[in-house]
Specification:
By secondary structure, the chain is an alpha/beta fold. 36% of the residues lie in helices and 12% in strands. It is globular. Bound molecules: 1,3,4-trihydroxy-5-OXO-cyclohexanecarboxylic acid.
Length: 140
């Protein structure tokens, strides 16, 4: 599970938009409810190059799929899109807030058309929905 810039501030950052759950609480909760047989690893970065490098490493790891909240890179980053396309592991794009009900610059995503699924506006529960979606997809 990958989280982009500013998501380390979850719980403290604009709680009216992103809720009061911290990233640590979110990660603990997901580990607790992960579908059986699914092992989770978590990574958050505020640095686009570090996130790009982390995605590249997936090519050499036994990773079946990704859940990513790319934060603001959603709306700006061809590099993150290209990295995700390069590794070819299915990924679910998550946004805690309903980006379509917010500023116009949040309405476009560089990732959505290459994502397996997009979950928007479900709060931090969206990450759990994303895991379930990946599980169903991987069961094939
Ligand atoms: C976000 C929405 C983005 O527009 C924003 O830049 C974020 C978080 C969300 O989870 O709702 O950092 O991805």
């Amino acid at each position: 599970m990958l989280n982009g810039p500013n998501l380390n501030l979850l719980g403290r950052r604009e709680p009216g938009v992103y809720g009061t759950t911290t990233l640590q609480e979110l990660e603990n909760g997901l580990s607790a409810i992960a579908p059986s047989g699914m092992m989770l690893e978590f990574f958050q970065s505020n640095h686009e190059g570090q996130m790009t490098d982390r995605i590249h490493r997936v090519m050499d790891e036994p990773v079946d799929g990704l859940v990513i909240n790319p934060g603001a890179w959603t709306h700006t980053s061809v590099a993150i899109r290209d990295a995700l396309s390069a590794v070819a592991a299915p990924f679910v794009e998550v946004h805690i807030s309903n980006v379509h009900a917010r500023e116009a610059f949040r309405h476009h995503s560089y990732l959505s058309d290459v994502a397996l699924a997009v979950i928007v506006g479900c709060g931090t529960q969206g990450y759990a929905f994303a895991l379930e979606t990946l599980k169903q997809h991987l069961k094939g």
